[in-house]
Design a protein that fits this description.
Shape: elongated
Strand content: 15-25%
CATH architecture of the largest domain: 3-Layer(aba) Sandwich
CATH class of the largest domain: Alpha Beta
CATH topology of the largest domain: D-Maltodextrin-Binding Protein, domain 2
Distance between the termini: 78 Å
Number of domains: 5
Amino acid sequence: MLSQNRKFKILSQNNLSAIRIITECFASFPELEFDIRVIEAETAGSSVENSKGLQSLTYGLLETLLNQTSDLVVVCAASLPWPLPSGLEVLALVKSATHSNKLPDPDYLYLEKLDAEQDPLEGFIAVVSAKEQTDLKSVFGPQDIRRAFGKVTLVGFGPGNADLLTIGGDKALGKADIIFHDDLLDQTFTEKYFGEKFYVGKRKDCHSFRQDRINRLLFKSASSGKFVVRLKGGDPMIFAHGGEELEYLRRNFIEVSVVPGVSSGVAVAAYTRVPLTHRGISSSVAFVSGHSESVQIPKTDTLVCFMGGSNVRLIAQKAIREGKRADTPVMLVHNISLPDQKEFYSTLEELSHTDQKFPTPLIIVIGKVVSLRNNSEVEVLKPVFLVTGTSSEKYNNLGTVIHQPLIEVNRIDPNQDLENCFNKLNEYDWIFFTSRYTVQFFFEFLNHYGKDTRKLAGIKIASMGNITTRALNKRGIIPDLEPDEESSEGLINYIERNKIPLGNVLIPRSNLGLPILPENLNRLGWSVTRPVFYENKYPDNLKRLDLTKVQTIVFPAPSCVTNFVRLYGSIPWDKEFIFRGKETKKRFLEINQSHE
């Protein structure tokens, strides 16, 4: 119902068309009173933030609606901010007197020249009020040119296989007057729809239409009253400019709806049978665009990269720099869901050096889930070990190994003590080798001092464990003694249990060699010589690793424990630990107590 006793306060820009529109509309309702006030730009102040650089006059006028000092504002539609301030609505969009009220001719769509600079709302007048103004809606509603507008539906076609088009998408296509479509790999599919087909596809370095022109084509078609479908591959809102088209059309008063499609980044999982998430393997997934050199590498378990076909090598290099393991498996898939789908499997390490050209379009999947393609869950879920010693080979068959040596080994310079030691080798009954490095440096010094293995005739050899034994075997030596327990304690126990006769023993060692072995040998009555053969130091340029997926940390020596705390600051108590020898565990417990 129209109010009989209300005088409407109307503010307008100094625009003859706007004033004409107001007076003509109210002339149809002689019982209504109104008062028009024409506002000049310099008289309109505004406290509304002009964040989009629009005319302060428009902001000032709209603010009068918010503070209820006016009932109606009439302005050039092109000057309206978008979105409108909360609580306001456009009652009508009307052509100005200088423009024909005739809607755009559909043939205009096919003209080669579309003015990209001109605002689509140029020549329109907008009538704005606070929401729920039923009186004013009845006055201006019949003049609203938007009543003759059509609408636009953004439809996702999916990755290419027509079977993946949704029922909603099929219905929209069936009602369409015109279909603006991308590079559908089977373009014959759209022939069953009666709407006119208009190709606006884009590919890298080969654009049929720029995005701004596509936006204007959609607007011109919808504003001429057509039901328009914008048909896109994949999903319209995932790396498909759907958001840009949606905003452009809504900003220009075109009704828009969106029908989702099956994104190729999601379909890749079904069509390769490689899940993007999997319990215990991947609990997070990120979708990124890979077409530019500024590609982002989020810290997620699985990474799905769109449009990365021309940047495969760069993406792999950046992923490694951002902390992903070089051996992370990668799957690259071309033409997902189509008969000629192709799959390529690699690792980040291999791809970081590749010159191979992959076919496009291409989806890249990076993450441990790719291993599920050819491996069982049990295989992929093998535990992850962080090995802090100089060798990790003992643990390679137990699971996934991250090797970060926290000690660096360097041979010392030849000196007089070492020369004396090698000049009297015939005086030793035993040589105890406690690591592969003692083997390596012993034989390097043996050669340096002009001797060979004949000098070891008559000397018995003890090895601390199988890695040391393999180092001896490479030099043609089978040790006489190897304890079951690979530690100094294990070697002492073996000697005591088997009543090994006392003798004179040479034990090559590092500068940080532990005293437990010589002290116990002395206790038993052995004569011990312990020359330093190499230095054990903290490595240069160590960086902290992401230990999130590590279940077990291996400490082969006390110095590894010390250096771990030096690097990481503390012991992560959500892990399991493996120690080589009681002294290593003792150091671990001592550090723990000192940090409590």
